[in-house]
Structure formats: structure tokens, C-alpha cells
Amino acid sequence: MCLRSRARPTLPGPGREEWRRRYPLFPRLLFVLDGTGPVAIENRISALRAAAGELKLFGFLHEVPVLAAPLTDRLQHGPSAPVWRPVQNPGSRVSWNQPRYG
């Protein structure tokens, strides 16, 4: 009986993820929040930020736009309106397609 080892699939580059072949940047993460009032929306955004901090994702938050918006704001003003709140700076409001968030 001859046991052969299976060849491992090769990575497209040293330690490079497959998705980076098509996307040079990680896409934005958009959270649409619904079913609650303005205070709870702020609490949910704060919870997203706290969860990212606990998972040591603050570096990730600087490279990948993570935005949250209440569904009511999106419906009233449109998805491209500056109703999106960056999780790393929830006091500001931006458009989801804005190149950089502060």
C-alpha cells in the first residue's frame, strides 16, 4: 500500500489572500441599523467600536471603512447621502462612497 501526500494548493503570492487578486483594497463594511430609536443606534455603534477594540481590530478600522447608518436615515435621504457614521469616529457623518473617513 502506497500512501501519497496531497500537494497543498499554492498561494498566489507569499502569504497573499486570494481575494486580493481582484480587489486591491478590502471592501467597505456597511451596517444598516433598524428596529430602534436614536439612542439605541448610538449604543449599537459604540458596541461595534468596542467589539473591534476587544478583537484588536483598530488597525483594521483604519484600513477598512466600517460604517453604520440607521435605516430610517437611508430611506429618508438615500443610500449615498452623508448618513453613514464611521465606527472609528461615530460623531461624524459621511457618504458611503467617500474615499477617506475621519
Class from secondary-structure proportions: alpha+beta
Task: Report the order of strands and helices.
Answer: EHHEHE
How much strand?
Answer: 5-15%
Instruction: Please give the largest β-sheet.
Output: 3 strands, mixed
- Helix content percent band: 25-40%
Please report the number of helical segments.
3
How far apart lie the N and C ends? 63 Å
Query: What's the β-strand tally?
Result: 3
Q: What best-fitting shape do the alpha-carbon axes yield?
A: globular
Calculate the mean pLDDT score and round it: 76
Describe the structure.
This protein is of the alpha+beta class and 102 residues long. It has a domain at 26-86. It is built from three helices and three strands, in the order βααβαβ. It has helices at residues 38-54, 58-63, 71-77, and strands spanning 29-33, 66-70, 85-86. Strands 1-2-3 form a three-stranded mixed beta sheet. The longest helix has 17 residues, at 38-54. The chain is globular, with a radius of gyration of 19 Å. The termini are far apart.
Keywords:
102 residues; alpha+beta; three-stranded mixed beta sheet
